[in-house]
Write a structure and sequence with these properties.
The structure is a homodimer. Chain A is of the alpha/beta class. In chain A, 47% of the residues lie in helices and 17% in strands. Chain A folds into 2 domains: 70 residues, Winged helix-like DNA-binding domain superfamily/Winged helix DNA-binding domain (Arc Repressor Mutant, subunit A, Orthogonal Bundle); 113 residues, Rossmann fold, CATH 3.40.50. The N and C termini of chain A lie far apart (48 Å). At the A-B interface, helix 1, helix 5 and helix 9 of A face helix 1, helix 5 and helix 9 of B.
Chain lengths: 215, 215
């Protein structure tokens, strides 16, 4: 972390996509103005929490008038960097890799997968939608030449660190990791890991302990 | 939340799968004893945090001897409820649903998908591995008759709440939700949601703000 900037806590940052999602849903329902109290009711945070969170970014809304939903939605999108588009590559064309490649909503949000990479020769040369599956040996060169911003790792945990190393050496800015392992990357690279099994095992814990309470 | 039980904080619960994952990796490397200091180094929590976390469950390890890796791994597995097996169903045979159905590691951990459900007639009757894709209209009856514990929702956000309602009415105990929406379920049902886009947008935020710092 660097000095000279106001640091926003990760807890606040992780709430921003949720605000944006609820605001999208309001726009879908043609609701264009909302009080922090009403927003609080649907999103489940207190009104004071919402005001505090948004004050981190200069504050929005007018006393007594509430928030302009469209403005707030667009402002949070900008804060999240969703007014940019990013070139991404997916490494690993297995189940999760294919699901991400097929999921067009990420592309609509500005995260365009330009290629996939695989070590399995049976998959190399195939396409998922218009995304070509290339030989994993070409990953480093491709990242450099095509100015790729984000690498999405969907390999086994055994291969994931090697893939991350190639990405880092080739100048990647961010890694979105689905391999069930904690990767080591230098501080200038942003790493975000989705641990699906941790989520499932948390569910399992809560199920078990609910059952014990009921016994 | 109910009375009469020691409440473990969600933060501790969410760390348990991570402990178990690191302990698995140690076993893979044939390491059978580890001090809290060494464990701290590889897992990235302080030694005192580790001792505190594990003390919630009665404590493990002996002063000066460290932890028996196998015992601790198995104890955490039990705490997480991974010594049970669970019958699961997957609703939605799109990208994520198919990826979950194909991902055999969850099945090995005791979460066995016994059927998938779809509204798309082109998919009904097909199989993913040995898991049949059935008509979504049969979901409620199936959950009741087959004693299904966990429902995995991989539908669009528009359909997800209706699916959750059917699951709840049919006696489901837990829901693992991949639809990008916050579902409403009664308190006796455990809900765990994986918000993939929130993870990606957090990555995007961190990328954008890192870039600004560097400018």
């Amino acid at each position: 972390m660097q000095k000279g900037n106001t640091r926003i806590s990760m807890a606040v940052i992780r709430r921003l996509p949720k605000y944006r999602r609820y605001l999208s849903e309001l726009l879908d329902k043609d609701i264009h103005r909302i009080s922090s109290k009403e927003l609080s009711k649907i999103i489940g945070f207190t009104a004071s929490q919402i005001r505090q969170d948004l004050n981190n970014f200069g504050g929005f809304g007018q006393q007594g008038y509430g928030y302009n939903v469209e403005e707030l939605h667009s402002a949070i999108g900008k804060i999240l960097g969703l007014d940019h588009s990013y070139n991404t590559v997916i490494v690993g064309a297995g189940n999760i890799g294919q699901a991400i490649a097929n999921y067009t909503n990420f592309e609509k949000a500005g995260f365009k997968p330009t290629a996939m990479f695989e070590i399995n020769p049976k998959l190399i040369g195939l396409k998922i939608r218009d995304i070509e599956i290339m030989d994993a040996d070409l990953l480093g060169t491709y990242i450099k030449e095509k100015n790729i911003n984000i690498g999405i790792i969907c390999t086994s945990k055994e291969k994931a660190q090697d893939v991350a190393n190639v990405m880092v050496e080739s100048g990647i800015q961010g890694i979105w990791n689905f391999a069930p392992t904690d990767l080591q990357v230098p501080e200038h690279v942003v790493l975000e890991t989705v641990h699906l099994s941790e989520s499932l095992y948390t569910l399992s814990y809560l199920l078990k302990h609910k059952r014990e309470e009921e016994d």
